[in-house]
Specification:
This protein has 350 residues and is of the alpha/beta class. The protein has 4 domains: 62 residues, no CATH class; 77 residues, no CATH class; 125 residues, Rossmann fold, CATH 3.40.50; 66 residues, OB fold (Dihydrolipoamide Acetyltransferase, E2P) (Beta Barrel). The chain is 58% helix and 17% strand. The protein has 14 helices and 10 strands. A 5-stranded parallel beta sheet has the order 3-2-1-4-5. Strands 6-7-8-10-9 form a 5-stranded mixed beta barrel. Strand 4, helix 13 and strand 5 form a beta-alpha-beta unit. Helix 6 packs across helix 7. The longest helix has 28 residues.
């Protein structure tokens, strides 16, 4: 049985009991049949309890649990410390303020508690990184790795299904350029499992490759990997859930999906695109530089040949069609950066 169903049963019994009490009370006031009023009010109370109990019990708790699940532990600790600090300051101010004549002496202490509690929580959450860095600096033997640990514990990176299947994330994480924690929501893992169980052999291989990459990431201690059950209510598509979750957590999304990249950027979400990273670290070639390349196929234009560098960069060689399946030395004439990647135009060296 679900929690909502149990709550409805309990609420029905409780509200029915309250209905009997109020029915007897109303019957006594009017001098009418107490049993009849008790039965009527009990039925009405049972109906009310059956309908509204989940909205005042399980559903607020579920919403609160989902909200707390999306907040990092560092933020929760900072908020709790800020609440304690605000209550202490409010208590210190309450003593002199309570001596004021009424109604100020009765009302202002309560307003002070609410105001200083809010200010304490807001200030400590806004400066949580600075506060935790101070705590780490005070620990013995930790001065050398303060900055690294502060960043590692304070950053969460959401992983998309496409970047897990791609596989390059495993190699990138080993280099040490990434810091923080990889967070994989359960709905991303479910989509990965769905792809791995697909009837199409190509999709099935991609899904299983993603499972292997995920296993490698979990074994690699360079960047911690955490799988979470957090979800986004009212959203069905995985990409939309990732964007909403990233906005709520103020975390970047790592992906190589072009559409997800554009949607996330339009909504103000930071994106770490593996394809853009790969293009950024490709070798820089200037016009006039010589280059050794294997021409393997024809180009789109007449007489062109096409080859590829080790990093996958396409090299279009003028008059290279007659040299297909040969390794030739070419001279770079132009380097073109496109949305699909980097292209190099060259001609055969004399």
């Amino acid at each position: 049985m679900s929690a909502d169903f149990i709550a409805r049963l309990v609420g029905m019994v409780v509200f029915a009991g309250l209905g009997v009490y109020w029915g007897i009370y109303v019957g006594n006031l009017g001098g009418e049949n107490q049993a009849l009023y008790g039965v009527i009010f009990a039925l009405v109370g049972a109906l009310i309890g059956l309908v509204i109990t989940p909205y005042i019990s399980t559903r607020p708790v579920r919403a609160l649990r989902g909200l707390l699940g999306r907040v990092s532990s560092q933020t929760l600790v900072s908020g709790f410390i800020g609440l304690l600090a605000g209550l202490i300051v409010a208590a210190l101010f309450a003593f002199p303020i309570s001596a004021l004549p009424p109604p100020f002496g009765d009302v202002l202490p309560l307003i002070g508690v609410l105001l200083f509690s809010y200010l304490g929580i807001a200030v400590f959450i806004m400066r949580q990184d600075d506060i935790f860095s101070v705590f780490r600096m005070t620990l013995p033997g930790r001065e050398g790795d303060v900055a690294g640990e502060m960043v590692d514990n304070g950053r969460t990176i959401l992983l998309d299904t496409s970047v897990i299947i791609d596989g390059r994330i495993s190699d990138i994480s080993r280099t040490g350029f990434l810091f923080g924690t990889f967070l994989i929501p359960r709905f991303v893992l479910n989509e990965l499992q769905y792809i791995a169980d697909s009837a199409d052999s190509m999709r099935r291989q991609r899904g299983r490759r993603g499972m292997e990459v995920l296993s490698e990431l979990q074994k690699d201690a360079t960047v911690p990997v955490r799988i979470s059950d957090i979800d986004v209510e009212g959203v069905r598509e995985v990409d939309d859930k990732l964007v909403v979750l990233a906005r709520q957590m103020k975390a970047p999304i790592m992906t190589n999906d072009y559409n997800l990249n554009r949607i996330a950027e339009l909504q103000g979400v930071s994106v770490l695109n593996v394809n853009e990273l790969a293009n950024a670290v490709k070798s820089v070639l200037l016009p006039g530089e010589p280059l050794l390349v294997d021409i393997i196929q024809e180009g789109k234009e007449s007489g062109q040949g096409v080859g590829y560098l080790d990093d996958g960069t396409m090299v279009v060689v003028e008059d290279g069609r007659r040299r297909i399946n040969e390794q030739v030395t070419v001279t770079v004439t132009k380097v073109l950066q496109t949305a699909a990647g980097r292209m190099i135009f060259a001609h055969i060296s004399e």
